[in-house]
Amino acid sequence: MPALGGTTRAVLSAHLGNVECAESSDVASGAHFVEIQQLPEETLPFLLPSRFCESDRFSQMAASIVMGQAPGYDQCSAIVNYIRQTIRYTPGSGMDIVSATEVNQRSDAVCRDLAHLGIACCRALSIPARMVVGYLEDLQPMDLHAWFEAYVGGRWYTFDPTRDHLQGGRVAIAYGRDAADVAIYTQFGDPAELLAMNVTVQRMEPPV
């Protein structure tokens, strides 16, 4: 489950039921870079290039973006700021899954694509990064959402290039190396046509 910060909690209601979560994600400016030999074994797969996150192609770009930043959380924040400043978040604009390399050549993208680019840049700096899909409170238009987490300071932290803050409850549904690991569905045989999808998330009063 995603890390919960502070003491404030929200209860969100989605089709999967009621979920208690933090009202905002933790921010940890200055959280240190974790040396590879000190990383937990389960984080190691998230250091490697993957199908949609070709981190081996982003070493120079990532180093340029984070120049002057303290290793760790501050580097991840610089990457997110770069993405937000250079690529416009445009919900509903990406029917095809594209890789970080392809996203980097575009002027607009969906949340999934922006997460791919953030993950690739973090991994290029030897920071484990993974994709998360789930629900975000107050997302407009409401839909499944994608963001990424990076392992710094001894734990996973949330980063979201689509937002200028980390307020709002998040309900994580799946974690993976990239979108190939966390697809809405995996299809075999004849193609199926998606006719409609309706997602609603609302805050509920916490239990007394």
TrEMBL record:
Coiled coil: none annotated. Pfam families: Transglut_core (PF01841). It comes from the Bacteria. SUPFAM superfamilies: Cysteine proteinases (SSF54001). Residues 103-163 form the Transglutaminase-like domain. This is Transglutaminase family protein. It comes from Coraliomargarita algicola. The lineage of its organism: Bacteria, Pseudomonadati, Verrucomicrobiota, Opitutia, Puniceicoccales.
